[in-house]
Amino acid sequence: MSELREDIFGLEVKKHILWEVVRWQLAKRRQGTHSTKTRGEVAYSGRKLYPQKGTGNARHGDRGANIFVGGGVAHGPKPRDYYYPLPKKVRKLALKMALSSKAKQNAIILVDSIDMGEVPKTKRALEFLRANGLEGKKVLVIIPERDQITEKSFRNLQTAKVLPVEGLNVYDILWADSLVIIKSALDKIYERLGS
What per-residue confidence (pLDDT) applies to 60? Predict the structure, then answer.
Protein backbone atom coordinates (compact mmCIF):
# COMPACT_ATOMS: atom_id res chain seq x y z
CA MET A 1 0.00 0.00 0.00
CA SER A 2 2.43 2.64 -1.21
CA GLU A 3 -0.35 5.26 -1.28
CA LEU A 4 -0.79 5.14 2.49
CA ARG A 5 1.19 7.51 4.70
CA GLU A 6 3.59 5.82 7.11
CA ASP A 7 2.93 8.26 9.98
CA ILE A 8 -0.74 7.14 10.10
CA PHE A 9 -0.83 3.65 8.58
CA GLY A 10 2.61 2.40 9.60
CA LEU A 11 2.78 2.78 13.37
CA GLU A 12 3.74 0.06 15.82
CA VAL A 13 0.52 -1.19 17.40
CA LYS A 14 0.31 -1.14 21.20
CA LYS A 15 -2.63 -3.24 22.35
CA HIS A 16 -3.00 -1.49 25.68
CA ILE A 17 -3.68 1.90 24.07
CA LEU A 18 -6.34 0.35 21.83
CA TRP A 19 -7.88 -1.39 24.87
CA GLU A 20 -7.91 1.91 26.80
CA VAL A 21 -9.76 3.76 24.05
CA VAL A 22 -12.28 0.95 23.37
CA ARG A 23 -13.03 0.82 27.12
CA TRP A 24 -13.53 4.61 27.14
CA GLN A 25 -15.82 4.43 24.09
CA LEU A 26 -17.98 1.68 25.57
CA ALA A 27 -18.14 3.44 28.95
CA LYS A 28 -19.42 6.72 27.52
CA ARG A 29 -21.96 4.78 25.43
CA ARG A 30 -23.58 3.30 28.57
CA GLN A 31 -26.99 4.70 29.50
CA GLY A 32 -26.49 4.44 33.24
CA THR A 33 -30.25 4.46 33.93
CA HIS A 34 -30.24 1.41 36.24
CA SER A 35 -31.68 2.01 39.69
CA THR A 36 -32.67 0.12 42.85
CA LYS A 37 -34.62 1.36 45.86
CA THR A 38 -32.91 1.99 49.15
CA ARG A 39 -34.60 1.26 52.48
CA GLY A 40 -35.88 4.82 52.51
CA GLU A 41 -37.62 4.42 49.14
CA VAL A 42 -39.43 1.06 49.45
CA ALA A 43 -43.17 1.22 50.16
CA TYR A 44 -43.20 0.21 53.82
CA SER A 45 -44.06 2.06 57.00
CA GLY A 46 -41.16 3.40 59.03
CA ARG A 47 -42.69 1.97 62.22
CA LYS A 48 -40.46 -0.12 64.47
CA LEU A 49 -41.52 -3.77 64.10
CA TYR A 50 -41.56 -4.62 67.81
CA PRO A 51 -39.96 -3.33 71.01
CA GLN A 52 -36.19 -3.14 71.17
CA LYS A 53 -35.99 -5.37 74.24
CA GLY A 54 -37.89 -8.20 75.85
CA THR A 55 -39.11 -10.23 72.88
CA GLY A 56 -36.12 -12.57 72.63
CA ASN A 57 -35.79 -11.74 68.94
CA ALA A 58 -33.07 -9.79 67.17
CA ARG A 59 -33.41 -6.00 67.24
CA HIS A 60 -35.13 -4.54 64.19
CA GLY A 61 -36.21 -1.14 63.04
CA ASP A 62 -38.62 -0.86 60.12
CA ARG A 63 -39.82 -3.50 57.66
CA GLY A 64 -37.91 -1.88 54.74
CA ALA A 65 -34.47 -2.79 56.12
CA ASN A 66 -32.23 -4.52 53.60
CA ILE A 67 -32.06 -7.83 55.48
CA PHE A 68 -35.78 -8.49 54.93
CA VAL A 69 -37.23 -9.99 51.77
CA GLY A 70 -38.79 -7.11 49.89
CA GLY A 71 -36.71 -4.57 51.81
CA GLY A 72 -34.46 -1.96 50.25
CA VAL A 73 -31.16 -2.75 48.57
CA ALA A 74 -27.95 -1.75 50.33
CA HIS A 75 -25.38 -0.11 48.03
CA GLY A 76 -27.39 -0.94 44.88
CA PRO A 77 -26.92 0.83 41.55
CA LYS A 78 -28.24 4.37 41.10
CA PRO A 79 -28.41 6.38 37.87
CA ARG A 80 -24.94 7.66 36.98
CA ASP A 81 -22.83 8.78 34.08
CA TYR A 82 -20.04 6.34 33.15
CA TYR A 83 -18.11 8.86 31.05
CA TYR A 84 -14.56 9.63 32.09
CA PRO A 85 -12.08 11.88 30.29
CA LEU A 86 -9.32 10.47 28.08
CA PRO A 87 -6.61 12.73 26.60
CA LYS A 88 -7.12 13.72 22.96
CA LYS A 89 -3.53 12.67 22.17
CA VAL A 90 -4.25 9.11 23.32
CA ARG A 91 -7.49 8.96 21.31
CA LYS A 92 -5.73 10.22 18.18
CA LEU A 93 -2.82 7.81 18.63
CA ALA A 94 -5.20 4.86 19.10
CA LEU A 95 -7.04 5.77 15.88
CA LYS A 96 -3.72 5.77 14.00
CA MET A 97 -2.76 2.44 15.59
CA ALA A 98 -6.11 0.86 14.69
CA LEU A 99 -5.62 1.94 11.05
CA SER A 100 -2.01 0.70 11.17
CA SER A 101 -3.12 -2.73 12.43
CA LYS A 102 -5.51 -3.06 9.46
CA ALA A 103 -2.77 -1.93 7.06
CA LYS A 104 -0.41 -4.58 8.52
CA GLN A 105 -3.08 -7.25 7.93
CA ASN A 106 -3.54 -6.02 4.32
CA ALA A 107 -7.20 -5.46 5.18
CA ILE A 108 -7.54 -2.03 3.55
CA ILE A 109 -9.09 -1.63 0.11
CA LEU A 110 -8.89 1.76 -1.63
CA VAL A 111 -11.61 2.58 -4.17
CA ASP A 112 -12.13 5.66 -6.33
CA SER A 113 -15.85 5.87 -5.53
CA ILE A 114 -18.92 3.83 -4.65
CA ASP A 115 -21.79 4.29 -7.07
CA MET A 116 -25.10 3.51 -5.40
CA GLY A 117 -27.27 5.29 -7.98
CA GLU A 118 -30.06 7.75 -7.20
CA VAL A 119 -32.08 5.53 -4.84
CA PRO A 120 -30.75 3.43 -1.92
CA LYS A 121 -30.59 -0.25 -2.92
CA THR A 122 -29.19 -3.01 -0.71
CA LYS A 123 -28.75 -5.09 -3.86
CA ARG A 124 -26.20 -2.60 -5.19
CA ALA A 125 -24.32 -2.67 -1.89
CA LEU A 126 -24.19 -6.49 -2.04
CA GLU A 127 -22.92 -6.35 -5.64
CA PHE A 128 -20.19 -3.92 -4.57
CA LEU A 129 -19.07 -6.25 -1.74
CA ARG A 130 -19.13 -9.26 -4.08
CA ALA A 131 -17.07 -7.42 -6.71
CA ASN A 132 -14.38 -6.69 -4.09
CA GLY A 133 -14.42 -10.20 -2.62
CA LEU A 134 -15.85 -9.01 0.71
CA GLU A 135 -19.06 -11.01 0.86
CA GLY A 136 -19.59 -12.58 4.29
CA LYS A 137 -16.84 -10.46 5.89
CA LYS A 138 -17.35 -7.65 8.38
CA VAL A 139 -16.72 -4.49 6.37
CA LEU A 140 -16.35 -0.85 7.39
CA VAL A 141 -16.89 1.56 4.49
CA ILE A 142 -15.25 4.96 5.10
CA ILE A 143 -16.74 7.84 3.11
CA PRO A 144 -15.60 11.51 3.02
CA GLU A 145 -18.84 12.93 4.45
CA ARG A 146 -22.34 11.72 5.29
CA ASP A 147 -24.18 10.34 2.27
CA GLN A 148 -27.76 9.13 2.81
CA ILE A 149 -27.87 6.91 -0.29
CA THR A 150 -24.68 4.99 0.56
CA GLU A 151 -25.61 4.71 4.24
CA LYS A 152 -29.12 3.43 3.51
CA SER A 153 -27.86 0.99 0.87
CA PHE A 154 -25.59 -0.73 3.42
CA ARG A 155 -27.92 -0.30 6.41
CA ASN A 156 -29.72 -3.65 6.05
CA LEU A 157 -26.48 -5.62 5.89
CA GLN A 158 -25.48 -6.89 9.33
CA THR A 159 -21.86 -7.31 8.31
CA ALA A 160 -21.37 -3.80 6.91
CA LYS A 161 -21.13 -0.33 8.44
CA VAL A 162 -20.71 3.02 6.72
CA LEU A 163 -18.94 5.86 8.54
CA PRO A 164 -17.92 9.34 7.44
CA VAL A 165 -14.34 10.33 8.35
CA GLU A 166 -15.57 12.53 11.21
CA GLY A 167 -17.28 9.51 12.82
CA LEU A 168 -14.27 7.21 12.46
CA ASN A 169 -13.49 5.44 15.74
CA VAL A 170 -11.26 2.70 17.15
CA TYR A 171 -14.08 0.31 18.14
CA ASP A 172 -15.59 0.13 14.63
CA ILE A 173 -12.19 -0.17 12.93
CA LEU A 174 -11.23 -3.13 15.16
CA TRP A 175 -14.70 -4.68 14.67
CA ALA A 176 -14.25 -4.87 10.89
CA ASP A 177 -12.34 -7.58 9.03
CA SER A 178 -11.74 -5.18 6.13
CA LEU A 179 -11.81 -1.42 5.59
CA VAL A 180 -13.00 0.06 2.32
CA ILE A 181 -11.73 3.62 2.02
CA ILE A 182 -12.82 5.98 -0.74
CA LYS A 183 -9.75 7.86 -1.98
CA SER A 184 -11.31 11.28 -1.33
CA ALA A 185 -11.86 10.15 2.29
CA LEU A 186 -8.17 9.35 2.60
CA ASP A 187 -7.27 13.06 2.33
CA LYS A 188 -9.76 13.84 5.11
CA ILE A 189 -8.20 11.12 7.29
CA TYR A 190 -4.79 12.74 6.76
CA GLU A 191 -6.33 16.12 7.59
CA ARG A 192 -7.89 14.77 10.79
CA LEU A 193 -4.97 12.68 12.00
CA GLY A 194 -1.99 14.45 10.48
CA SER A 195 0.22 16.04 13.13
Answer: 94
Residue type, 94: A
Return the closest-CA partner of residue 179 out of 149, 148, 137: 137
> Any idea which of 47-51, 53-57, 113-117, 182-186 has the lowest mean pLDDT?
113-117
Partnered with residue 23 across adjacent β-strands are: none
Q: 34-61: per-residue pLDDT in tens?
A: 999 999 999 999 999 999 999 999 999 9
| 3-class DSSP state of 151 | helix
- Helices and strands, number each (H, E), in the chain: 7, 4
The whole-model pTM stands at 0.82
Going by their DSSP bridges, the two strands 160-164 and 178-182 should be labelled as: unpaired
CATH classification of 84-193, choosing from 3.40.1370.10, 3.40.50.150, 3.30.1330.60, 3.40.5.50? 3.40.1370.10
CA distance 160 to 168: 14
